């Protein structure tokens, strides 16, 4: 990772303006058109989650603002952002699952599939104190228009959070609600929309 020189940073004013807010988290929700990837993953009998998670991390890693974190009152940028997600268990609790981003989809699919299985059978929550990732949750039982996350005390919780909802059909197309929350000292609405647009474009490439 590399440290950002805040005094020479284009976001210097925005960073100082938002960083000490009691609640500096901004967010938005958008319905992402996912017809092609949704249908092709079902036809192949493959995990739609792993397919779209790979596309999400691909989009995240193309946007430098989503690779920024606040660590010990410094702004740092990680070279690669990996993933973590909640995994629903048979007893209706959940575990955390961690997996590496690989540009090669076959490698990503195999590793993530194994990680999901391990997490599903785990008896521990295993919350790891690492920053080079995106916090992901999945709510497959219902579509939604907004969502709110619990936050740790203080204003330095700078890991973006993404929630994927239940796929729904409208006319001949399928859509999935996606919520993004991020620290406003690091990320603006423009960058969130950039993620939505890039992610949706990638969803047309199964």
TrEMBL record:
Naturally occurring in which organism (per UniProt): Paralabilibaculum antarcticum
Lineage top rank: taxon: Bacteria
InterPro entries, sorted: CAT-like_dom_sf, Cmp_AcTrfase
Gene3D superfamilies: Chloramphenicol acetyltransferase-like domain
A Pfam family per the record: CAT
Identification of the protein by name: CatA-like O-acetyltransferase
Phylogenetic classification of the source organism: Bacteria, Pseudomonadati, Bacteroidota, Bacteroidia, Marinilabiliales
Transmembrane domains' residue ranges: none
